[in-house]
Input
Amino acid sequence: MGLFDKIKSIFGAQPKTAAPEKKAPESAGKKEVAPVKKSEEVKVTKPKVAYVHLSGCTGCLVSLADTYEKLLDILGAVDMVYNLTLADARTLPEGKFDIAIVEGGVCLQDEESVQLIKETREKAGLVVAYGGCAATGNVLNFCRGGQANQPQHESFVPINRLVKVDAYLPGCPPAPELIYNFCIAAVTGDTEYLKPFMAGEAGGYHCGCDLNTKIIENALCMGCGTCAASCPTRAIEMVYGRPSFNNIRCLKCGACYAACPRSFLPVNKIKGMLV
Amino acid sequence: MPFGTYKEVMALKAKDAKITGVTQDGGVVTALLCYAMDKGIIDGALVAGKGDMPWLPKPMIATTKEEIIAAAGTKYTISPVISVVKDAAREYGLDKIAVVGTPCQMYAIRKMQLYPFGGRHIPDKIALTIGIFCTENFSYAGLKTIIEDHCKVPVESVTKMEIGGGKFKVKGGGKEVAIPIKETHKYEQESCHVCSDLTAEFADIGTGSIGTPDGWSTVFTRSTKGKDLLAKAMADGLFEKKSMDEFKSPTTPPAPGKKPIKTGLDLLEQMDKQKKEKAQKTFDERKALGLFVTPEIVY
Output
């Protein structure tokens, strides 16, 4: 469990023992991935991963698959113990597993969903809120019930409302490359890359308004346009060098703020790109 | 370290008069983009094209040399160039995109390559990044105020503007006006004051006028990609080249009471240092006010 100790140490928890570094699958040469740290004899233990599907559109899973041949890297690097769409197992495995990737929000009126996310938290070493719905609530923020064929289903919440979440991947859906980078970083223990996903504020309610309240109000916006390019619904237009945000179109996915170079700037990682 | 990491630095000037006739300084960006397009190294470039109002740039996806040349020249206001990167990759179907922008836009595109939250299939399509030296930027209204109220030149008549030698210079309306750069400071966008990057430290190639005389550009190659491209272009005789040593500060001591004159890389280093110090100061001030400031913005 060296990886998790390492990751958890980001939050200030004590790592139990110095564990050997895990080695990446054969991914060298792919430029999105930070170079794998050199280490001598390493034992590769594949982390057990469960893909938990709550109330979401499966778009995030499609995005995961949209990594083309790199999907094989990801699937090769992990042991997929539960994935309703891709694997046979119908229930979460008995006992503990390493990572739960959760897609979709939780419907509070659906007892099974509530139970599933609780059970996931108990069994998983790490819970990853994958995609807007699980991370920020996303389009589920607009749910109000009263619709066929389950009119009683009206409250859909991001998973951090019910359980502790270790990492958030906002975006609707997060780009395939982001997922790939995240998975490889998780397997190789690249905590520096993972850090921004683990910031508590990455989860929970987000909105295009974040650009105003967190970036422009703090005199940080320099008008690069990254937010506009990142928006899945084109709710952001650049007008005189500042984002002009169309509230009606905003899905509340959180991609714009996460992508903004002034929300966090991975300077070291960027320097590593200049080879 | 001044100028960030780089492989080489040199002074360049494009030989093609068609290019240098319209560009800001040595025509390095325009000539390199045209060359990369010819050689199939890129199939499109994100540039600052002409917008709907005089000197209001509009981010543009240039797919021909004509479009690249039409977008030549510095515009001293914000062109949100990254905003069109998804259009270039998805709608235009470009596979090898060049991005031209300010240093802050270079780290924006780098972050998008590393953390593409909404940048589906963009990271591997960025073939080249060219960063332009930048001390600070103005909002469009700010720029217009400088030109019309301070320089007294109608903005629609302006044919060229430049910053150099401590002056903001405007050509247009049959005259040439220069005002002290100090007068323009209050129109700088506030977000530039936390930026510590003058020389586009994260681009494949960083270039700008500071450090070289009129008609020349100072050029840094920072990645193997940038270095190789430039080496090819040099081999094909695209540029006149001079060593930065030719523009060294004068060794004669300054006249009594005067500051020593700095030129070449000394000047660039001094300005780079000033920008970094200002960024640190602004960072600390804002922190003291309890405001959120991007961690790592000062590095």
